[in-house]
Amino acid sequence: MKYNWNWGILFEEPYFGWLVSGIEWTLIVSAIAWIIAFSLGSLVGVARTVNSMPVRAVATAYVELFRNIPLLVQMFIWFYVVPELVPDGLGRWMKRDMPFPEATSAILCLGTYTASRVAEQVRAGIESIPRGQTAAGLAMGLTLAQVYRYLLVPVGYRIIVPPLTSEFLTIFKNSSLALTIGVGEVLMQARQIENYTFQGFEAFTAATLIYVVVTLIVVFAMDRIEKRARIPGYGVQRGQ
Amino acid sequence: MLKKMMILAAAGSVLGAFSASAADFYGTLQKIKESGTIVLGHRESSVPFAYVGPDQKPIGYSMDLCMKVVEAVKAELKLDTLNVKYVPVTPQTRIPLIANGNINLECGSTTNNLTRQQQVDFAHTTFITGTKLLVKKASGIKEVEDLKGKSIALAQGTTNERAIKETIAKLGIADVKILNVKDHAEGFLALETDRVDAYSTDHILLFGLISKAKSPADYAVTGRFLSFDPYALMLSRDDSAFRLVVNKTLAGLFRSGEIEPLYTKWFMSPIPGGSALNVPMDETLKTNFMVQAFPE
Amino acid sequence: MGAFDFGAITRALPYLWDGMQLSLLLTGLSAAGSIVLGTILALMRLSGIKPLQWIGATWVNFFRSLPLLLVIFWFYFLVPLIAQRQVDAFQSALVGFVLFEAAYYCEIMRSGIQSISRGQAWAGYALGLRYSQTMRFIVLPQAFRNMLPVLLTQTIILFQDTSLVFVVGLADFMTSAVTVAQRDGRLMELYIFAAAVYFLMCYGASLYVKFLQKKMHQ
Fold it and tell me: Which residues of chain B have pLDDT under 70?
């Protein structure tokens, strides 16, 4: 096969601009989705450790539901099905007037999906704290809510910094699925450059480098944070 | 080192050419002969050119033309059986797949243009159309100018995507929201579910989409032509022997007039899974068939 | 969109079943291939030979920093170009999945191998077994057994991941569902059905993994 290499194309306008806007969308979608995943995931994770049976059941159902359906299916459901299920007026708003309908759907999808994974990490973090500490807290006259507020949650988070980092990277990589509903993130822009210029190798190489570089930066930064956050004597296996 | 290898390779291919007898084939024909299989790329929602029919098989005007080509290839290679493999393609995948040799012939609704000819090759023109808008009648949109402040879906990788974007930029139509979709079916669904106010592709495909709609009466194809799109079957570049077999088949259909019942079948009569498009053959297309009816 | 139309699903069942078979085949072959490759990578990472360690580590870190979607695109367009012949979408996807998922299976096998006490390997050497024999007969079978639940969990994830071949139009369960959904204009029915099928299969499998884990701990 003949292939005409042209690396310069990546720095020509409008293609360079497309890549930059792709990076912007990828980062925006990942960051907002992460905020949702982190807050919702923390709530669900804590809910899985409390004594109340119904609360635990709801939290468990949430986790099982979201992690046993492929993300792509969830993406389509958020974008195509949800607006049809809600009342007509709201559905129309979601499809038409909601700011950036595609990106918003993608953010909700990634956020709620990753929340189920974050919840599992939070639960693991809290459960790895010896029960004696809870008992000690209660004995000192703290309420259970206070034990969570001042002891379990902050200590739990410091234990799970490494797995949370990899969850953030997961959201960053998974944001590429947003292209299936029309969000102009990095991979979509790479494909568009390929469509316009037929320089697929250069475009995909650029996308690959972007992902690798961002990952390296995050890993490096989190490594430093992890060193500061680490509590001697505690540890949760990375990834699992 | 690389240079040496290239010289060797060149020498090898020259020697190969000399030693090959006249009956040998090269390129695509050779590949088809060796594997006993021809690979057809087809679209899935280009009604009525190539789309998935009620029994999940690809059917359409371009598919029928391709099947004629398959017969001709079989005869040319003197094969008893020739397997046909179908590979679904989208506007984004069709050109890379022809360029990397994964499909031998693309049967769809592909515009033959000079930019694409840098990567791929095309057979004779089989249909002529151009970019128009598909809207819901109730929306009152008549021309591209009416899209101001509205939203439109466009299929990525189509000539129409560029035609619309260029027109919008040139005329300075403000505040047009664009939704990227993967293929025509997705674009039409976006319009049907009120996600967008318009969808745009070649006018004939828009009629095709209407013919398969749940309530065809709600939709209208509107506006002036915003581009000129001559369709052709797409094949690999630098393979004139294979292209000749394809063109011979097409010229034969044009010359004998066999193209007319084929046209009637897909554009004037009810089609599988939908109603009739009722788009009569226009003068341009008639002339096109006449001009390309090369003698044997 | 009107009421929920079950007929839209039942009419499409034979077609969807074809898609599911392809999904399962792709999952099975990818899992088998990537567990083998992942184990080799794990042995490289633990080998104590610098260049091998480096290759193993780079492979794992590289593929783990990429979205699977990007890998699928790469292989869809790249494999035929390198192979200089037609490669169907299934084969391209399979190659992509094996290379990509091997990075994840590698880390599982690595911790599995590390969980076997060193004494066992030494015992093997003391008996006169070579490295390859020690690994084959003593360490790997135990590591594999210990890690079985985790390997299965990763395979459930792999099964979910196969839905991504939708982007290259390979007719798996997901693609079939989308094709029917768009053709018949029945998005709600088909997408909810697809979600339900995936959920039941994956949840069922994860319950089995839990059962297995319990049994092993007894």
Answer: 1-23
